[in-house]
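Replying to the earlier thread about multi-chain prediction with a worked example.

Input:
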Amino acid sequence: MSFIEAHGIAKSFAAREGPRHALADVSIAVDQHAFVSIVGAMGSGKSTLLGILAGLVEPDAGRVLVGGEPVRGVRSDAAFVFQNYSLFPWFSALENVRLAVGATSPQLPRAQQTETARRALEQVGLGNAASRRPGQLSGGMRQRVALARALATRPALLFLDEPFGALDALTRETLQQELARLCQSAERPVTTVMITNSVEEAILLSDWIVPIVPGPPATLGEPIPVNLPRPRTVSQIAHDEDASRARAHVLATLTASLRPSSRRRWTAGAQPAVVEG
Amino acid sequence: MSQSTTTVAKPPVPRFPTLPVAALGRQLAVPLAAVLVFLALWSWAAASIETSLGRIPGPVGVWRQAGALWADHQVERAKAAAFYDRQAARHAAILAADPAAAVTVAAYTGKPTYIDQIGTSLLTVFAGFLVATLVAVPLGILCGLSPTINAGVNPFVQIFRPVSPLAWLPIVTIVVSALYVSDNPMFEKSFITSAITVALCSLWPALINTSLGVSSIDRDLMNVATVLRLPWWTKLVKVVIPSSLPLIFTGLRLSLGVGWMVLIAAEMLAQNPGLGKFVWDEFQNGSSDSLGRIMVAVFTIGAIGFLLDRVMHAVHKAVDFSRAQ
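Result:
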């Protein structure tokens, strides 16, 4: 049984030229403890879909179920990492993480919340930068703090919206490994949905890749499994056959939409993608 | 065998950094020169204009008047000190003769000096500013958080913002006279009237800027607050207010500036014993010193306004976290 299920999601936005249908009749299902990446180009409606799955955005139609229960707002066991760090600039890194811990577990005494926050920062390698403000941290460090904040609350669901999109290539690689390690060693197994525009990143981190084909309205392609053993390294997947096959498959799906003849095929209707695993 | 000689370059002799002459020139010399030109023009103009109150005093005359006001202040203080000394001596003598006698301590009833008047003005403007802040900031936060409340408050802001303090004064005076009745008032009626008028005129910049600051919080930060499921009080204190502090302080700084300007007019008409009343009294007095004293007041008002602004600017910078980024 799938842990996260979405059926018939539709979302439109008002625009000057008329309503823009970002999503129309999109369905997706994610199994428990799976790591699913949604890969697509910019502006393809990925962030909207993720927002709807997380409960941050209300869909115009359709419903989202987590563990069989309908989603109403953000769940207390869900964590979200934004593309643009989104740390509070007037608090230190430690206070940013502690705020999240305090909001999830208000019954804990303050000292214990701070201790949990400190441990989370140590796990991402920022133990000695805890008292610095986001303005004094580099982009990579800020995103580490964002990861620490997300994982400090021991979430059951983790949503990542292009978490490394705003970083340079070298930092991105480092943090991808970091995220893989954190997800492996998390105290509580996490069901993760990540958005990325990098196929390599998706292959490195996920169990399933779902390509999203831009619309409007956006449609989801057939989910592609990535059956590589963990832990994975960049050099490993560069030469692995399975990885190459998956990469080719994803790219074919994404670029197929760009050919004029196929555009008619994809926008004809809903392409439900059911992910099992 | 030829030896290859390698010459090692001598390390450069450290020199003192050259003075940034151009920058210094711009920041110090030019304003200084401009002030000197202004003083020269003033002296020339003063000598050429005859008014009903005598010649307009030039810089020297004004300086002399400033000295006279300071000397008056010293004299008054000395008289007050002497009065209290005499009273203490009298009381000691009475109590020595009869320890059970009742002695009442009388206050010195001399007229307020120029320095006292400056003090009164500052006290009044801060009282008015405090009232304005206590009204404008919470109301601004409400307006920023709720477009509905903003739509309701906005018409009043637009209509009342341009109203001059001179128009508010009669209404405020009458209302204060009617409502502020007590046998032993803590504050003078004129003080209350001036403070409320200052508050009424200066609360608008703070209100508008607070509302703007709260309504323009970064969407991402509000999303984070939603994702963390922060309770509304935590969201207000830890997200909304810190995020809008820079604009709130801009509004407060503008408010203080407006308040100081409004104060002088309000004091003139409400007869609050501050700088405004000083100017009015000197004008009514019509002595040969009056123009000079009024000019001293003008420069004093300007200098204090500038200092107040600098203080607010320093406080603003202290809370501006965006500079750290």
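Chain B has a mean pLDDT of 87.

Feel free to reuse this layout for your own posts.
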